[in-house]
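Render this sequence as a predicted structure.
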Amino acid sequence: MTTHLKDSHGLLHLKISSDVVKDVCTKYSIPQKLPTNIVGPIPVIKGLAVIKDGLLCPECKSIATTDKSINKHWTANHGDLKKPASFETVYAQRLSKMPKCKRYFQVIIEEDGDATVPNMDLSGLRKECDRLFEDYRISQFDDRMVSPWLATTRWHEHVSQYEWQHLRDLVKLPDAGDGDLVYLKDAVERIMGRAMKLLPETPLLALQKIVSPDPVKR
């Protein structure tokens, strides 16, 4: 839970006691660590991404997502056996991208297309999580984490609804495929350089307005 909050919702600066997490896990019979030895086929787990063309190893039931990786697996683990002419294509999922949990396992999707889930009270779990997080609203930041500029602009509130990966993509430097945007970095640097040169000759009153917490209100 702590790692998920940090990686997926870092902008919110949410903190939750490890004891609270343990209590919730105990109440809803949720293992504190993800299993690493799932062997398929099992019913598809709702909420996890489904790979529709996983390549199944007929010997050990390992699943790869590309021809190159399944061939590499076969050579490394079953090189003394005759390789099949083709590998069966199956639906597959994995619990996480973490090294110990990134192994794919075969899943079965019912004919009606409705994904089945483990026997778990998910609605109750969501309500419990909502209750735990209701005291961690975006406006309740530790003052030490929010600078006067950030408190004035309220950017942290504006971007809280977006995933940090998306925000990072928006601010990354343009590359060769972005056309004229590749010149944006140099243009901004030149503008900043010219602005810095104007500081010595800028009137004191103007400078005071610029550095005030909220120049619009003064």
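Summary. DSSP finds nine helices and five strands in the chain. Residues 14 and 135 are 10 Å apart (CA to CA).
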